[in-house]
Amino acid sequence: MRLAILLSGRGSNFQAIHEAIRHGRLQAEIVLVLSNRPDAPGIQRAKEYGYAAHILDHKQFAKRALHEEEVQRLLDAAQPDFIVLAGYMRLLSPAFVERYRHRILNIHPSLLPSFPGVDAQAQAVAYGVKVSGCTVHFVDEHLDAGPIIVQRTVPVLDGDTADTLSARILEQEHVAYVEALGKLARPWRVEGRRVVFE
Ligand code: GRF
Fold first, then answer.
1. Which residues approach ligand 1 with their CB closer than 6 A?
2. Could you give the domains of the chain?
């Protein structure tokens, strides 16, 4: 299973996938790591690990479409089976999503469809839910909305802040992404909104 990782920041989900592969918990190969931010700690780490690591700074492109074209060019050269969004803070165009239908994965720090968008953990604390978690899903044309592959739950505790809840969810994100990729290594199909594993 060939993986391309797209990130914009810290890269702890990328690191979790890297570790899982290194320790034989996931049969996969990271063939490309790409950041739209030159200063993303995750891309520095990818270089240290010796991956094909690319920076495509979106600010250097006059139009969103031109940046995406370059991303696409790098992806097509690397031939990934799956494109793993790991804290990638750029919206993807419908054409891009269509080109890689059911091959782009995202992770979101809530139990979708609750709390899509930014600050999902703060939304969960403010709403007062007692359980939250994370969701790995295929990317479709809508924000945080495609077919769900894996969810993991965590309790929301009295006294939680967005930060304490985020930390608890993040631990589960690292498990969930590896679990989702492992599941996709076996036969699966999408029926309507549902991902069905055989
Ligand atoms: C995670 O909370 C993820 O759910 C969200 O962005 C954050 C990325 O964290 N999409 P990291 O860069 O993988 O550490």
1. 7, 9-13, 42, 86-87, 107-109, 170, 173
2. 1-100 (3.40.50.170), 106-198 (3.40.50.170)
